[in-house]
């Protein structure tokens, strides 16, 4: 009897507690209790956040564009009205054996082999300004420290280099699934120490000594996580006149540098959202320069070919900043033996 009564008492107690809630629901104007929205377990949120890309990562194409900019600034443009400033530090070493000859009346009067070596550190500050969304202006200011050593000549030279003015124009809108073309134009002003106004063979020059004009075409295409790029350029220079440089037993009065044609190709590969690598090859073929001496002798130098194999590593320190380190190895006798470069974008 007691066992049967206990369930009935529990049911009655539950009914007493439920009556006020039912009465409130039945009243006019009463509102039904809302059902709280279902939420996924905390473990599901953590998994979703872990798989999601972090802010600023986007896709790897942004990192590849920044890497291309550091490898060769001719591959990217900036928006109208924007300014980008960057700093480049480069070290180059040249060591070679140089044959020195001179021809006088009656035949060869001088023939000797000189060991020539130079160490050059170049600090370059460059600024890009977006004239239009598809047109960017550029100015570069190099500061050069050079130590050269040759037979009878050695010393250190610190001077400004040749100032460069350039523009980059993108004729067609950049699209992800199509190659991007960029047309370039540059003027190099002879603001550095001219090689035609120093002691011949001393290696103390910090500039080319002539005004040079160059035009080029660059192409790149990003196929995530790889970016392919290539370039073609032509450079011509104005002659250096009214010179008075002693060269052997003669007085050099005029130099007309030959036209130079260059090309390059390579690729960049994004290992992750923060690390990228680049491999590229650059070659320049220069026609011989024409020399005129005070005694009426005209001469022409031989053609030169310079080739460099470049290996680079890019590290993305922030969504807008990528630091790039590169190492270049000369593959021809007319190239620097070794080149080490560092590119660092500066906030402005």
Report the order of strands and helices.
HHHEEEEEEEEEEEEEEEEE
The CATH class label is Mainly Beta
So how many helices? 3
Q: What is the multimeric organization of the chains shown?
A: single chain
CATH superfamily: Autotransporter beta-domain
* Beta strand count: 17
pLDDT averaged over residues: 79
According to CATH, what is the topology? Lipocalin
Give the name of the CATH architecture.
Beta Barrel
Structural class: mainly beta
Q: Any low-confidence stretches, pLDDT <50, length ≥5? A: 1-44, 46-58
Helix content: 10-25%
Number of domain modules: 1
Biggest beta-sheet profile: 12 strands, antiparallel, barrel
Radius of gyration: 35 Å
Order of strands in the sheet with most strands: 1-2-3-5-6-7-8-11-12-15-16-17
């Amino acid at each position: 009897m007691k066992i049967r009564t206990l369930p009935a008492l529990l049911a009655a107690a539950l009914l007493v507690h439920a009556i006020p809630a039912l009465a409130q629901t039945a009243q006019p104007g009463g509102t039904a209790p809302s059902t709280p929205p279902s939420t996924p377990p905390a473990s599901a949120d953590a998994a979703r956040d872990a798989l999601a890309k972090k802010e600023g990562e986007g896709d790897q194409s942004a990192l590849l564009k920044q890497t291309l900019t550091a490898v060769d600034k001719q591959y990217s443009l900036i928006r109208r009205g924007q300014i980008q400033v960057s700093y480049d530090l480069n070290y180059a070493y040249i060591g070679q054996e140089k044959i020195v000859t001179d021809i006088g009346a009656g035949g060869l009067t001088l023939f000797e082999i000189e060991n020539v070596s130079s160490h050059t550190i170049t600090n370059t500050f460059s600024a890009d300004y977006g004239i239009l969304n598809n047109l960017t202006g550029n100015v570069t200011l190099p500061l050069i420290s050079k130590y050269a050593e040759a037979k009878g000549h050695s010393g250190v030279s610190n001077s400004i280099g040749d100032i460069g003015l350039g523009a980059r124009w993108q004729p067609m809108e950049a699209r992800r699934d199509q190659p991007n073309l960029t047309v370039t134009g540059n003027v190099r002003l002879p603001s550095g120490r001219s090689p035609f106004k120093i002691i011949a063979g001393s290696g103390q020059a910090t500039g080319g000594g002539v005004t040079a004009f160059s035009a080029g075409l660059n192409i790149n295409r990003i196929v995530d996580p790889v970016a392919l790029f290539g370039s073609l350029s032509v450079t011509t220079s104005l002659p250096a006149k009214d010179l008075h440089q002693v060269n052997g037993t003669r007085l050099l009065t005029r130099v007309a540098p030959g036209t130079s044609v260059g090309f390059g190709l390579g690729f960049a590969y994004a290992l992750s959202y923060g690390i990228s690598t680049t491999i590229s090859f650059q070659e320049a073929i220069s026609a011989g320069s024409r020399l005129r001496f005070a005694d009426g002798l005209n001469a022409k130098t031989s053609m030169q070919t310079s080739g460099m194999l470049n290996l680079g590593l890019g590290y993305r320190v922030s969504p807008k900043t990528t630091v790039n380190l590169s190492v270049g190895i000369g593959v021809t006798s007319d190239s620097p033996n070794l080149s080490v470069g560092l590119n660092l974008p500066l906030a402005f």
